[in-house]
Write a structure and sequence with these properties.
Distance between the termini: 41 Å
Number of helices: 3
Radius of gyration: 25 Å
CATH superfamily: monomeric porin ompg
Strand order of the largest sheet: 1-2-3-4-5-6-7-8-9-10-11-12-13-14
CATH class: Mainly Beta
Helix content: under 10%
Strand content: over 45%
CATH topology: Porin
Largest sheet: 14 strands, antiparallel, barrel
Number of domains: 1
């Protein structure tokens, strides 16, 4: 009996010690990154030149002009408990908000949560979730109700993703990453014919060409399923599913000869999106094709009192095309657009030790 009591007490003591060890592993500092960005968007509704010349801004749900200043505050929490010996764990949570002075409806927020585990140098596995509760596009004609009246169009978006990275055996300090994403886009009740579930597979290759110069090449393929096709509404007689392929090349490097400048980078992406537009209503061979391009240039400046400063310029454009003999030849006039954005971004990191 005495031996049983001793064994029981020993088990209890070991459990308490193990629990205490686990608690100690969880008691680590939390890094908090606060940020704010001030920007300008020349075409925040992504309107075509024809729409800008012929549309009444009030019909589209904006005050007076098609450009807008933008303010983007955000906060990010980084937590790295010691869960496994020899493996780094990173738990990240972030919230960002975008405010447009020309349209309150355009304001939106993005929340994201991710977990990353380092397996070895340049090798990570990561999973996460991103949510946009409501993203306002603009006012469109609801063709199920009227061909003249404009109605507000917005959607909610959820994304789940998992990625894996691994060093490249033939490149020193080079690695590749593959990512699988599933994104849902559910529109408000007047525009449910556009509901989508998207599956994206992407691959990135990262490597250095000089000591402090980096290149990243990304390829992705997306298949989007229009889940509301052939439901009850007349507007769902067109299948809005599509496939898309995207190429992106980024270059960044440290700067030594300019005292205030720390680094500079540039990226260029090109994406082709193709809609077959199968229909139960139209008999012609309808299709449409989008070519989207985006150019980014950014500069990171020297830190002051742990304050990071970045300036950034972005140019975006879209060229839309369709079957000239089909039923959607009008898209060239209202789906093509171009815009430019300017940004000044500030972020500040500090440590919270409240878990000790």
């Amino acid at each position: 009996m005495d031996k049983k009591i001793i064994l029981l007490l020993t088990g209890i003591v070991l459990s308490v010690l193990n629990s205490q060890t686990l608690l100690n592993r969880l008691r680590v500092p939390v890094t908090i990154q606060s940020s704010i960005a001030f920007g300008y968007d020349s075409n925040f509704l992504r309107l075509s030149e024809k729409e800008m010349n012929e549309s009444n801004p009030a019909e589209l749900g904006i005050s007076s002009t098609f450009d807008s200043p933008v303010v983007k505050p955000g906060v990010k929490f980084l937590y790295s408990p010691f869960l496994w010996e020899g493996h780094t764990t990173k738990l990240t949570a972030s919230v960002n908000y975008s405010a447009y002075t020309q349209s309150l409806q355009k304001n939106y927020n993005i929340s994201q949560l991710s977990l990353a585990i380092k397996l070895k140098p340049y090798s990570w596995i990561k999973t996460g979730y991103r949510m946009i509760p409501q993203y306002y596009l603009r006012k469109y004609r609801d063709r199920d109700v009227s061909l003249t009246d404009y109605k507000e169009c917005n959607f909610s978006s959820d994304k789940l993703f998992v990625s894996f990275s691994h060093p490249l055996p033939f490149l020193s300090k080079g690695w590749f990453q593959t990512t699988l994403e599933q994104t849902t886009e559910f529109y408000n009740s007047l525009f449910t014919e556009f509901d989508l579930i998207k599956l994206t597979m992407s691959g990135d290759v990262n490597f250095r060409i000089w000591k402090k110069k980096k290149i990243k090449i990304s390829l992705s393929h997306t298949s989007a399923d229009n889940i509301s096709y052939k439901t009850s509404l007349p507007s769902t007689n067109v299948d809005r599913s599509y496939v898309a392929d995207k190429l992106k090349i980024s270059f960044s490097g440290k700067v030594k000869k300019i005292a205030l400048l720390q680094s500079i980078g540039i990226s260029q992406s090109i994406e082709q999106r193709y809609y077959d537009l199968v229909s139960t209503h139209y008999s012609l061979d309808n299709w449409k094709n989008y070519i989207d391009g985006r150019t980014n240039i950014w500069m990171d400046w020297k830190q002051y009192f742990n304050l990071n400063i970045r300036t950034r310029c972005q140019y975006r454009w879209r060229d839309a095309d369709s079957n000239i003999a089909g039923d959607f030849e009008w898209i060239e006039d209202i789906k093509s657009y171009q815009k430019i954005e300017f940004w000044v971004e500030f972020d500040y990191d500090f440590t919270w030790e409240g878990l000790y």
